[in-house]
Amino acid sequence: MSAHHPTVVSEAPWKADFESHLEKIGGPSAEFYLATVTPEGAPRVRTCIHRGFWAQLPENKHNELPKNPAIYQSDCPVFTNDARMEKTYHIFATGKGKGDREQSKSGTGGGGPVEAVYWVKDTMTQWRVRGKAWLVAADDVEGGTDEAQNSGTVTVKAQVGRYMRPVGDHATKNSEWSWKNEVENHFENLSPGMRGTFRNPPPGHPLSEGKGEGEELGQKVGHLADDELARKNFRVVIITPEEVERVDLSDPEKSKRWIYTLSQESGGQGGGDESKPSQEWDVTETWP
Ligand SMILES: Cc1cc2nc3c(=O)[nH]c(=O)nc-3n(C[C@H](O)[C@H](O)[C@H](O)COP(=O)(O)O)c2cc1C
Fold first, then answer.
1. 242-279, pLDDT tens digit by residue?
2. I need a labelling partner for 114 at 20 to 30 A (CA). Which of 95, 147, 169, 239 fits?
3. Nearest atom in ligand 1 to 47's CA
4. How far apart are the two ends of the chain, measured CA to CA in Å?
């Protein structure tokens, strides 16, 4: 991994419980709800599928690609998305760079605010993860031409990098870790039919507008590296959490709620230095 970033040394205090609760609702196929904000300030919520945590690719029977070395962990939930969908535009338009629709379709970037909600009935716990979302495209995230290396790529690597904890053989295998490889592996972790949806006609557009070349429902796709159209549309979305709320309703007479907040020194609460690692979390127990 080429980008330099500050080093996070410990896991967020909520991560282990969150991860183990997610295992009870499907682990890397758990359903959750994602809220974004439109450029006009209206809320939009939709169902998505959790695909693990960034840099910790889940095992998957569909995936035969070479993997990145396991030298990073993070507290960042990941899902996949089509760049042509509205949430992509919301995430670009409400980020610091205020990206327009064309930019949102063109590659890596984003940074708009999101909230993801996960309800785990087995543990009677609701988790709400608030932070920023970043979209990563295989074609411009590393290497390639100078034009392809846009400022979105640099920002995403820096911002997500703050959350990437070196582990294991990091010192010797650092140069082998590739953002592009991680994106290609997330694509490969989907079923061939699900991969094919990235060649669908444009989501949300009227049927009367027709479809582009090669676009069709019900296609099956192999590797991302071999499919230009799917590559144009496929994004891995990484949520960089800043506030996590946990509500435990397992005892109706003694419900509990905790709010974990990334400390100001760690770039949280809007006031801190975003060049710092996402290290320190404050926790407050509140009335439920
Ligand atoms: C069970 C289920 C899982 C879904 N998973 C995802 C997902 O992981 N990513 C995604 O972008 N859309 C997913 N969708 C589709 C979204 O709910 C939504 O319809 C689509 O993303 C378009 O929304 P948007 O235009 O607001 O972006 C899923 C829908 C369902 C019902």
1. 999 999 999 999 999 999 999 877 777 665 556 667 77
2. 147
3. 17
4. 42
